[in-house]
Amino acid sequence: MKSQEKRIISGNYLEVEHYPVTKHGYRHDRKYRLSRIEQQNLNQKNAVKKMTRLINTNFGLGDLLMHCTYRLDEMPKSEKEVLNDIQNYFRRINRYRKSHGMPRAKYIYVIECSSSGKWHWHGIMSGMNRNIAEELWGHGDFVNADRFQPTAQTGGEAFAKYISKKPKGKRRWNCSKKNLKKPTVKTKSSGYTRRGIARIARERVDDTRYWERKYKGYRLVSVTPVYNEFNGWWYIYIKMYRDTRGINSNERKQSNMSVLHK
Fold first, then answer.
1. How far out from the chain centre does Cα 84 lie?
2. Contacts of 75 by beta carbon, 8 Å cutoff, 6+ apart
3. Which residues, in sequence order, are bridge partners of residue 108?
4. For the chain, is the Cβ count within 10 Å smaller at the N or the C terminus?
5. Which residue has the higher pLDDT, 22 or 217?
6. DSSP structure string for the chain
7. For the chain, percent of residues with pLDDT exceeding 70
8. Cα distances (angstroms) measured from residue 124 to each of 55, 70, 112, 118, 219
9. How many angstroms separate the CA atoms of 154 and 222, rounded?
C-alpha cells in the first residue's frame, strides 16, 4: 500500500486527509462492521462536514441567516404548503434582486416542525438589505435576518451543525439550484511510506510551523491522527484556514456596506 493525500478546498478553508490506498488506488479503511450507533454517529459527522463545506464554498461575511415563522392563523397543514411558501418567497427575493441589478440568490434552508405542529424554517442566503429580506416573507410575526459572521477558523460550521443535527420532529433541508458551487477536491500520492506517516503522526501533530510551511497561505486549526489497528496505518486529518483579516478586511467591509445599502 501507499499513502494518498486528498485536499478539500471550501472557500477560505482547507481540509487535508492522508490515508493508505491499495495498489489499484482504492482507499484502505477499517475491516470491521460498525454498530448501529457508531454508523449513525459517523453518518451525522459526515453530514456536518458536507454541509460545512457547501456553506464555506458559497457564503461569507455579509450574507444573511434567516429565521422565519408563521402566524398561528396562517400555520400550514403540511410540509408541501411550507415548501410552496418558501419557493414563492425566493421568487420574490429574486425579482427584487433582478430589479436592483443583483444576481440570483444562493440559499440553503431547513424546514422544521415542532412537536406541537408549528412549522418554521431557518436558512442562509446571499447578502442583501436585511429589512427587505424580512418584509418579503410576509407570513410571520417573528422574522429575523441576521448577518452571517463565520469564524476565521471554522467558517459556517456552527450553522452547518444546526441544520444537520438529528431531527426533533420533522426536518428537511433544500437549496437553490444550479448556482451553488461545489468544494474543490484534489487527490494525489503523498509520497509517504507507512513509517513516514507514523513518524508524522507521533512527532508533528502539534508542530504548527511544519504544517503552515507545508500548506503555504493557510493557518493551522487542528491535526487529528487516528491509528487503524486492523491495517497498521495512521490516518491524518488536517484543518486549516486562509487568514483574510489583513488587507482584504477593508475591501470586504466596503463590499458588505454596498450590499447592505442596496
1. 25
2. 117, 118, 119
3. 124, 175
4. C
5. 217
6. -EEEEEEEEETTEEEEEEEEE-TTS-B----SPPPHHHHHHHHHHHHHHHHHHHHHHH--TT-EEEEEE--GGG--SSHHHHHHHHHHHHHHHHHHHHHTT-PPPPEEEEEEE-TTS-EEEEEEE----HHHHHHTT-S-S-EEEEEP--BTTTBTHHHHHHHHSPPSSEEEEEE-SS-PPPPEEEEEE----HHHHHHHHHHSTT-HHHHHHHSTT-EEEEEEEEEETTTTEEEEEEEEE----SHHHHHHHHHHHHHHT-
7. 86
8. 8, 18, 15, 21, 26
9. 10
Using pLDDT thresholds of 50, 70 and 90, give the confidence band for residue 262. very low
User: Whole-angstrom Cα distance, residue 240 to residue 215?
Assistant: 9
Is residue 171 predicted with pLDDT exceeding 70? no
The dihedrals phi and psi of 39, each to the nearest 5 degrees, come to -65, -40
- Helices 36-58 and 157-164: crossing angle in degrees, nearest 10, is 130
Mean pLDDT of 130-158: 94
Task: Give me the pLDDT at residue 31, please.
Answer: 60
The answer to whether residue 131 scores a pLDDT higher than 90 is: yes
How much is the pLDDT for 28? 59
The residue type of 30 is R
Q: List own/partner pairs for 20-28 with CB under 8 A and 24 or more apart.
A: 20/194, 20/197, 20/231, 20/233, 20/235, 28/1, 28/231, 28/233
The amino acid at residue 120 is H
The answer to whether the beta carbons of residues 180 and 8 sit under 8 Å apart is no
The C-alpha atoms of residue 19 and residue 194 are separated, in whole angstroms, by 10
